[in-house]
């Protein structure tokens, strides 16, 4: 997904221009580099683990103004900032950080919004430690990187809480109707950009809630719904229409969309199909996917006893997997009152794909990490309810082609562990509905929609696609970036007609 070369040049020139502004030069001179480097990285204020496992409140409390300005002063405003190369959408990181340092939070927000459509969301859930922060110059001096993610979140929250969010410029209506399939980050980012360019945008969502994984997957204690709702309300104010409970491919067909006058369709239907391990006992009562578990808890209030469809609570809960979804599931199970919550992962903690912060939080909340362990079978009682997880102990072998050491079974090392709820969180596949409903659409062997990397256009001229339906399970920021790129290219194509 390369940016066009000419754009890269423009971006560099623009960044150099911003860096050369007098206020910024003065700011650089105001504090010596040595002093900036010597300062300690800010600590995110967090709720106490004992308190937070009894509620759904957001764990990270956000930085104060003083903390944010002090952290911003750690940034060296590098002439060739590598942090930007680590950001999938190329946010002008030092520009927004230096604006925080001088106390102009509005200018900081504008700098982020030039490239990111959902900064309050990305500031909370982006894996910064693997992206922008992993390239920060501070690492070269054996210092902790600048807390770019915390600062991004600070700026977005400050704008929202102080009611000083800028109203985007909206082009005159052009009368062209476009449809979006799915309301996750890819669909929302696309909808926002198209509405600003004057298109009539309708977002069709299969579920009764708008937001995709941001609502049904990522729990409230990590990403409060009110944060996502502000973004959705902002889109409504831009004139975007949301149609919930509408499955494209079932409720409405591709032909129906044409008949309704939609000239372009952006498919952002995500990767919501859970994978299982195909081991004996996975169909016992009490074994479910994390997708089902989290959706029922997050969207259907199934954790409450008075719910029409309450979810099983379980005393001994095993969550299988080591990604963010697994981490969200163990922490949700803990909040639902489970006494013993186990995270069962076949490799070691080092190989876990989940964010470091999630691992730390899960441990603080009393989750038992059962690494180098792989379930091979579930056993049940006479009522068909899971009672036991049979686990094969593993050791790490040589690194595979991806550099990760692969787990190898230790012969004869098998244990039976009592469980009454198992949540399988071993990955997701692209949602097959759209590919099945539109047979002419080019689809890869993995079930992802094939698009041109630059334009996000599919094999069918009026269909563009992005996010997890194109990438398989990826990240919020990549989905959002795809939505924005698809919007720019679809708008150009439709306006040229
Ligand atoms: C539990 C969990 C935790 C995660 N944590 C993180 C994290 O911390 N950081 C991070 O960066 N990423 C995280 N991810 C991944 C990230 O959320 C996804 O990569 C991202 O949401 C993908 O966005 P999307 O817009 O492509 O799809 P989605 O967010 O999946 O949205 C797709 C939407 O399309 C709808 N839909 C599907 N088919 C149709 C249809 N035929 N008609 C109408 N609507 C349809 C679905 O109901 C859904 O609402 C997590 C994922 C999960 C599941
Ligand atoms: S690499 Fe680190 S120090 Fe340099 S500009 Fe980026 S955030 Fe600031």
Topology (SSEs and partners):
Layout: H1 5-19, H2 22-30, H3 33-38, H4 49-52, H5 65-72, H6 82-85, H7 93-101, H8 105-113, H9 119-125, H10 148-161, E1 177-181, H11 185-196, E2 200-204, H12 213-216, H13 225-237, E3 241-243, H14 254-259, E4 262-267, E5 273-274, E6 287-289, H15 290-300, E7 316-320, H16 324-335, E8 340-344, H17 356-364, E9 368-370, E10 373-380, E11 386-399, E12 405-418, E13 421-424, E14 428-429, H18 433-437, E15 463-465, H19 468-471, H20 476-496
The site of flavin-adenine dinucleotide (FAD) has 40 residues, from helix 11, helix 16, helix 18, helix 19 and helix 20.
General description of the model:
The chain is built from 20 helices and 15 strands. With 497 residues, it is an alpha/beta fold. The strands form four sheets. It has a five-stranded parallel sheet with strand order 3-2-1-4-15. The protein has a five-stranded parallel sheet with strand order 6-13-7-8-9. It has a three-stranded antiparallel sheet with strand order 10-11-12, with no helix packed on it. Helix 5 crosses helix 7 and helix 9 runs antiparallel to helix 10. The chain starts with a helix and ends with a helix. 45% of the residues are buried. The N terminus is likely disordered.
Bound molecules: flavin-adenine dinucleotide, iron/sulfur cluster
Number of distinct helices: 20
Q: What's the helical proportion of residues?
A: 25-40%
Shape: globular
How would you classify the helix and strand content by structural class?
A: alpha/beta
In total, the number of strands is 15
| Poorly predicted regions | 1-6
**Strand-residue proportion:** 15-25%
What's the mean pLDDT score?
93
- Estimated radius of gyration: 24 Å
Terminus-to-terminus distance: 26 Å
User: Strand count, sense and closure of the main sheet?
Assistant: 5 strands, parallel
């Amino acid at each position: 997904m390369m940016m066009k070369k000419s754009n890269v040049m423009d971006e560099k020139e623009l960044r150099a221009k911003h860096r050369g502004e007098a206020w910024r030069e003065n700011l650089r001179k105001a504090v010596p580099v040595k002093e900036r480097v010597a300062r300690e990285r800010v600590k995110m204020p967090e709720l106490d683990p004992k308190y937070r496992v009894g509620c759904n409140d957001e764990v990270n409390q956000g930085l104060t103004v003083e903390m944010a300005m002090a952290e911003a002063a750690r940034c060296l405003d590098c002439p060739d900032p590598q942090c930007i190369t680590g950001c999938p959408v190329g946010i002008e990181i030092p520009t927004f950080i230096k604006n925080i340092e001088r106390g102009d939070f509005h200018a900081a927000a504008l700098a982020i919004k030039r490239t990111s459509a959902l900064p309050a969301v990305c500031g909370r859930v982006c894996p910064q430690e693997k992206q922008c922060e992993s390239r920060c110059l501070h690492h070269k001096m054996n210092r902790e990187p600048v807390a770019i993610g915390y600062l991004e979140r600070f700026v977005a929250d400050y704008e929202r809480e102080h009611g000083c969010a800028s109203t985007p410029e909206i082009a005159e209506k052009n009368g062209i109707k476009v449809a979006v399939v799915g309301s996750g980050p890819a669909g929302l980012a696309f909808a926002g950009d198209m509405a600003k360019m004057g298109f009539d945008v309708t977002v069709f969502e299969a579920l009764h809630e708008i937001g995709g994984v941001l609502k049904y997957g990522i729990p409230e204690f990590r990403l409060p719904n009110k944060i996502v709702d502000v973004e959705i309300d902002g889109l409504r104010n831009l004139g975007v229409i949301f149609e919930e409970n509408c499955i494209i491919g079932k409720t409405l067909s591709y032909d129906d969309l044409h008949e309704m006058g939609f000239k372009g369709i952006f498919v952002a239907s995500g990767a919501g199909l859970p994978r299982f391990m195909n081991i004996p006992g996975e169909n016992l009562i009490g074994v479910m996917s994390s997708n089902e578990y989290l959706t029922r808890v997050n969207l259907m209030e199934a954790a409450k006893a008075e719910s029409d469809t309450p979810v099983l609570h379980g005393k001994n809960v095993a969550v299988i997997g080591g990604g963010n979804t697994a981490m969200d599931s163990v922490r949700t199970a803990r909040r639902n009152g489970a006494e013993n919550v186990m995270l069962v992962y076949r490799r070691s903690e080092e190989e876990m794909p989940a964010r470091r912060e999630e691992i730390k939080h899960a441990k603080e909340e009393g989750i038992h990490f059962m690494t180098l362990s792989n379930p091979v079978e579930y056993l049940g009682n006479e009522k068909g309810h899971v009672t036991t997880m049979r686990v094969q102990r593993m050791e790490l072998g040589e690194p595979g082609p991806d550099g990760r050491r692969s787990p190898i079974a230790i012969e004869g090392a098998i244990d039976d562990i009592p469980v009454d709820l198992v949540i399988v969180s071993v990955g997701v596949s692209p949602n097959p509905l759209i590919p099945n409903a539109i047979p002419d659409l080019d689809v890869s062997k993995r079930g992802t929609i094939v698009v041109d990397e630059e334009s996000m256009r599919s094999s069918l001229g009026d269909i563009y696609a992005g996010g997890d339906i194109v990438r398989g399970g990826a990240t919020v920021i990549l989905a959002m970036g795809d939505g924005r790129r698809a919007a720019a290219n679809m708008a150009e194509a439709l306006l040229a007609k």
